[in-house]
Amino acid sequence: MRVARLLFIALLLLSPLARGDPWQAEFLLLPSATVVGTFNSNAAVTQVNDEVLQADMLFSAQKGQFKFLTEYLISDHEGDLERFQLGWQLSNDTVIWLGRYHQPASVWNHEHHHGQYLQTSITRPEIEEWEDLRGVLPQHFTGILIESSKPLFGNWRLRTALAGGLAPQLTAEGLEPFDLVHPDSNRHTMGYQARASIHPSEFTESGVGVLAATNEMAEAGTPSPPQVGLDHVNLRLLGVFGTYVAEDWRVQGTFYRADARLYYATGAVNDNFGVGYLQGEWRFARAFTAFVRWEDSVGAGYSQYLKLFEEFAAVRYVGGLRWDFASRQAVTLQLGNTHTLNGRFDDVRLQWSAAFF
Fold first, then answer.
1. How confident is the model over 100-109, as pLDDT tens digits?
2. Which domains does the chain have, with CATH numbers?
3. What is the pTM of this model?
């Protein structure tokens, strides 16, 4: 409970400093329902849930320079406090956050978080998947996050994000982030992330940038067979990303270069691999959006680190159609062809998603 108490104390200390300003609060509910069918499968395990019901709830409040943000996700298989952030507006350009945050080296998750309605495709790229869905990169940290957006020249802006906090652990079920609600006494290690990008104007999504991260993840609990003898992993990431948004279409892509060092009782193993994706979207007839995504990897089949996640999709092709049939409601049909480290399968998904204020 030590971290949760520190966050509560920070809330008590910061809120009186903004006492003279009125409270401003917003609540956003993002429900969704998805059905999935798989076929043409020769993969031993696909990690695909046939039905997924979930409600993502975001609450934000501000009083003067003080900010508060929380995100709670309820689904048919979990209930989790995804984000809990106490913030302070240092200037017009910079905010410092303390608490549980989404690591900034994932551009996709920085834009969409857990809300299904916020992303056009039903699935997110495999390399951006959440830890509890067998994601291979740590996505949730508890610590400090600093975000800023500063003018460069003309209308161009420089956006940066720096963060450091408690990293997820390696368990038999995959990566497990530190839980603020039910903290454990296991050994926790640190991770650090950074992102920087330039954009032609203050409010546009178009831009290009770089990202970097170094994370140490300790093994905890009863190990799976591939983890026997493993003590911890040092995972370093370097990446580039870009987004271009026009009136009726957009293209977004990211490439990660990963270097992992796995420390076993008998010695250390060096490993490296690359993973990238490119997604294109085209909006037509006002209410319809077609999308395609290509995900690919380099060296994934030989990666000792990725062998800890045998369901990881080394190659995946995704395509589909989204229909925004009502105000802030959509129905999406998606087809996918996935090649994991232990086989392949095809899938079809149908989803309803919405956003209620």
1. 999 999 999 9
2. 2-354 (2.40.160.10)
3. 0.91
